[in-house]
Write a structure and sequence with these properties.
Number of strands: 7
CATH topology: Maf protein
Site (Important for substrate specificity): 14, 73, 155
Number of domains: 1
Bound molecules: thymidine-5'-triphosphate
Shape: elongated
Structural class: alpha/beta
Subcellular location: Cytoplasm
Keywords: Cytoplasm, Hydrolase, Nucleotide metabolism
Largest sheet: 7 strands, mixed
Order of helices and strands: EHEHEEHEEHEHH
Cofactor: a divalent metal cation
Distance between the termini: 18 Å
CATH class: Alpha Beta
Family: Belongs to the Maf family. YhdE subfamily.
Length: 191
Amino acid sequence: MSYPRIALASSSPRRRELLAQLGVDFQLVKADIDETPYPNEAPRLYVTRLARQKALAGLACLTTAMPVLGADTIVVANNEILGKPADFAEFNRTMQLLSGRSHKVMTAVALVSSERTLQQLVSTEVYFRTLTAQDIDSYWQSGEPHDKAGGYGIQGLAAKFVQRINGSYTAVVGLPLCETEQLLQQWQEPV
Ligand SMILES: Cc1cn([C@H]2C[C@H](O)[C@@H](COP(=O)(O)OP(=O)(O)OP(=O)(O)O)O2)c(=O)[nH]c1=O
């Protein structure tokens, strides 16, 4: 199966590496958008909107027409969206919410052109063991939490906190490969 050449609207090194795993020919494009949620916006609507807006922002920057892929990842606990922690206090509060229970990681992907939008939401349940104050302190000191939704990276040092997951590992890291590949295949099908 051959895929269309696409642009990836992302500055995330994880997304770049994951997309490369599919063997897709792609270029990078910037996608800076305002990530503020609308008042009372449901997490699943928020994450899907952001993936689409990133892709559309990328599309607006292109000089050669091609489909643009955007993605967004959020961590949700108690129906609250836990973003990238701005400081230790926020990180500590996030870790208290995640400790000893399960939460959801939602990743949305959107593939857009000026004529079409294909999108998909993938939700994965992640189970954390109970975290000690020492776990939380030393994980913060590692520098890993800063640029990650929910303040952790399952692919990094936080792997030792994760007892199990129910869903897509690649979606937790930032790009669900099975669903992304299906969107690319669907793009090639006659409409
Ligand atoms: C939960 C989790 C998130 N993350 C990352 C994936 C995303 O890069 C980041 C969530 O933030 P996003 O806002 O989805 O993405 P981003 O700002 O990093 O990149 P982009 O330019 O595409 O907008 O958190 C991990 O790497 N591992 C994890 O286990």
